[in-house]
Amino acid sequence: VPGSGGLPALNHTSQGAQRWIDLERHPDTSTALKALKAEDYACYAAHFSERAVDFRSVDYTRPTALVLGTEKFGVSDEALALCDGEVIIPMAGMTQSLNVSVAAAVILYEAQRQREDAGRYEPRDPSEPLQRDLIERWVARDLARRKLPLPDDDSLAD
Fold first, then answer.
1. DSSP collapsed to 3 states, 54-70
2. Residue 4's CB: how many other CB atoms inside 10 A?
3. How far apart are the C-alpha atoms of 158 and 89, rounded to whole Å?
4. What is the pLDDT of residue 46?
5. First to last CA, the chain
6. Contacting residues for 44 by C-beta, under 8 A, at least 6 apart
7. Could you please report the per-residue DSSP string of 79-121?
8. Beta bridge partners of 74
9. What integer is the mean pLDDT of 14-28?
10. What is the reported pTM?
11. Which residues are CB-contacts of 63 (< 8 A; sequence separation ≥ 6)?
């Protein structure tokens, strides 16, 4: 339910990405950011402020979490306090910000570019334990997904 503070149980807009990632739910933003920081993630908020730096100046080759707020209210003060820094996408003209999904895409594209330049996307041997585990988990998820009954026409209208 939009605005209820929770994630929907199933979202078909991800184009199957849910089969490639593990989603870990947290009761609130603070708990999630603290868990990421405990795992040595750098946490940056996309937030228009005096301390914000150009999003391209951040090193995304290390484990990094990006916090994006709502388009109307931005990132909460609580989340900002837990972040290592703030980034902005420099804009020209009358508009000061992009739609949140576009901003996420632009920043994630920069992260992908930096990681590719650093050689992070070289082909990997599928027999390596980490790659083998990813493949096995994907196959298990895909097989489980295929065993589910197809939704009826009425549930598609919801």
1. EHHHCCCCCCEEEEECE
2. 7
3. 36
4. 95
5. 11
6. 58, 64, 65, 66, 67, 83, 84, 85, 86, 87
7. HHHHSSEEEE----SS-----HHHHHHHHHHHHHHHHHHTTTT
8. 70
9. 75
10. 0.74
11. 39, 40, 41, 42
Give the mean pLDDT of the chain. Answer: 83
The residue written with tokens 């979490």 in the block is 65
Task: Identify the residue whose tokens are 């576009």.
Answer: 102
Residue 73 in tokens? 């209210």
- Here the tokens at position 56 are 């391209």
SS3 50: coil
User: Which tokens go with 125?
Assistant: 């041997």
- Please give the single-letter amino acid code of residue 114: Q
Tokens 């996420």 correspond to 104
pLDDT tens for 33-86 read 999 999 999 999 999 899 999 999 999 999 999 999 987 888 999 999 999 999
